[in-house]
Design brief:
β3 and β4 form a beta hairpin. The protein has a single domain, classed as rbstp2171 (2-Layer Sandwich). It is of the alpha+beta class. Helix content is 39%, strand content 16%. It has six helices and five strands; from the N terminus they run αββαββαβααα. It is flat.
């Protein structure tokens, strides 16, 4: 396989999208994967910075709506929501939002816990049996 040139990389159409049925809303929505820049902006929107400018924690308030506002698009690929619409979108059924967010995360290459990792707040997965077993 040949090495790609800068022009070939820039010309590659690598954005993925998926039509997802949403019977609860009476139709379908198109979910598009975020670019690297959009993904970083989404992750940054969830990180709380301390007075020293370093990550202090994660604000998961309306995290699903923040993600979906960046990923639900119309037939022309234009966002249906913007950052100002997050509360409106967040008022929808949480189970539906979670189902759509799973698709958005997959298409955007976001793994569970990625935001917590970026903020330095992830905890190692427990190993062995717990006292509550």
């Amino acid at each position: 396989m040949a090495l790609l040139t800068r022009a070939q990389i820039n010309a590659a159409d690598d954005v993925q999208d998926e039509i997802v049925p949403v019977p609860e809303w009476g139709g379908e929505v198109r979910i598009v994967g975020m670019s690297g820049t959009a993904r970083n902006a989404y992750q940054t929107s969830l990180v709380q910075l301390g007075p020293n400018g370093k990550p202090q924690g994660v604000n998961l308030s309306n995290q699903l709506a923040k993600l979906l506002a960046r990923c639900i698009v119309d037939e022309d690929g234009q966002p249906l929501y913007d950052v100002g619409d997050v509360k409106e979108l967040g008022a929808k059924n949480g189970a539906v939002l979670e189902r759509l967010a799973k698709v958005a995360r997959r298409l955007s290459g976001l793994q569970e816990g990625a935001v917590e990792d970026a903020a330095g707040n992830s905890e190692p997965a427990p190993s062995g049996s717990s006292a509550s077993d």
